[in-house]
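Lines hold sequence, tokenised fold; shown next:
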Amino acid sequence: YLARGTRNLYARSAWSDDAYWSVFTSSPRQVDDHQQLNATNFVFARGGDALIVDPTPYGSRSSLNANAITMDSARVGGDYAPSQTPWGAAELPFARGTKSGVVAARGDATKAFNFQDKISDLMYLRRDWVFLPEGELVTIDRGAGSVPTQKLYLRFRTPGTLAGSTSGPLVARADVGASSIAIHAVKLSPATPPVIRTAPVGTACPYDKLFGACRIGTFATTEYSYE
């Protein structure tokens, strides 16, 4: 099901108790408040087991609390960096569902880094997202800035305790309830290893300073991070 206004895409493999389901979102700024700056974010579950989660605190102005991609921008500085901005104009260029149960979408966050009256300097920043009813998700995350030093930030958060190899076969695994999750890095450029770490926990992000760099979650998660 696609909620066209809010650009939320809902996918389920079945209606059984152990079915896989997911939500993908990539929306422009809709209102001045009560909306997270998280174009390209998603969550993923199997039955009652939440595998990829969004622990973002209420009122956060950071894109680093959950699973959205973000990027350094020469337009975005100060307390807003390195997150998407309240002036952003992200989009969901396409969303498709098939009879076989495969669901796919593209989140375009290129203009999510508009800053006041300045247009984003990113050449592109997008996530191609695919839901397979067998219980797999695929994300292809690509970005390019106006200068080579601009960094892309990617993370997946799970309530399970991730462990595994981040050299050689780049795989991290965790158990969540009666389910297990494995995160496979198919291709990384540059080929630096991801980092597995415990995400900070708190009730709220700071309001007055460095709010764009807030990584706090409202409950305990492990973060698979690549920058």
Notes: The chain has a mean pLDDT of 94. The chain has no helices and 16 strands. The CA atoms of residues 160 and 175 lie 6 Å apart. The first strand starts at residue 2 and ends at 3.
